[in-house]
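User: quick one, sequence for these tokens?
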């Protein structure tokens, strides 16, 4: 997209700057920001790991105490991981909505081009390298900015506003979702039971979780209760994966409840830019 990019009022930001902003702005159920939870998890992991190692070597730590300590560390890191995912989801959702934007060089060469807002629904982020991409589409050397910091004279705003209008039309057209109209994303013929690679009976839960995350990531309308969302996902799964091990709506509800609560929290209290 050939546009002459004026430097924003506050200058360009890196992809990491934007990510750090969302880590600081994304709250947990306890009201602690994602950045705080991640920092606490990293600190307690370092301290706890050293303590467990020292006490194990000295013989002052029983196997049960060691298992409890390791389980606590695992829980802390799982929570930190969830908060990273939610913050990144908020970040890409806002990019698709035009609240911030980025320009980059395709495959790291040539002039900087605007990354169209619609692309953020499928691009994968490499925060440390300041790059995004998927399949054959890659942007490097990203320069980012909040839309609020761009002068009205910059033509990039026209592109962003056009994308916002398109997104608004799509959301209005899909605002009511019916269980019987769950989209058919797979052939109707039976599939082999899905396997995740984990030991034990084959599970299909990862397929449902991926669909739930896709719905959240694409700013689709999720149901107003976790029970209703689980029933929708159960209907979607039955229609699209008829040969996979069965999952009940109750099982799905128990699985997605923590992520659903956080998704609704962020939907009801959107990040203010």
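Assistant:
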């Amino acid at each position: 997209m050939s546009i002459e990019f004026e430097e924003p009022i506050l200058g360009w930001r890196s992809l990491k700057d934007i990510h750090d902003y969302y880590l600081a702005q994304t709250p947990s159920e306890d009201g602690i920001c994602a950045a705080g939870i991640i920092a606490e998890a990293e600190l307690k992991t370092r301290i706890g790991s050293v303590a467990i190692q020292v006490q194990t070597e000295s013989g002052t730590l029983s196997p049960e105490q060691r298992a409890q300590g390791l389980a606590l560390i695992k829980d802390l890191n799982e929570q930190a991981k969830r908060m990273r995912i939610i913050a990144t989801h908020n970040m890409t959702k806002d990019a698709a909505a035009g609240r911030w934007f980025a320009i980059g060089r395709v495959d790291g060469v040539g002039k900087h081009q605007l990354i169209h807002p619609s692309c953020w629904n499928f691009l994968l982020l490499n925060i440390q390298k300041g790059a995004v991409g998927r399949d054959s589409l890659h942007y490097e050397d990203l320069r980012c900015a909040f839309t609020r910091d761009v002068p009205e004279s910059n033509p990039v705003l026209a592109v962003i506003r056009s994308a916002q209008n398109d997104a608004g039309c799509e959301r209005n057209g899909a605002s009511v979702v019916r269980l019987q109209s769950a989209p058919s994303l797979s052939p109707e013929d039976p599939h082999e039971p899905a396997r995740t690679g984990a030991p034990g009976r084959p599970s299909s839960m990862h397929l449902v979780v991926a669909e739930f995350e896709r719905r959240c990531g694409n700013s689709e309308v999720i149901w107003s209760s976790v029970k209703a969302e689980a029933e929708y996902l159960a209907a979607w799964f039955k229609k699209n994966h008829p040969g996979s091990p069965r999952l009940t709506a109750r099982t799905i509800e128990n699985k997605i409840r923590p992520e659903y609560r956080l998704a609704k929290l962020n939907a009801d209290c959107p990040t203010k830019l």
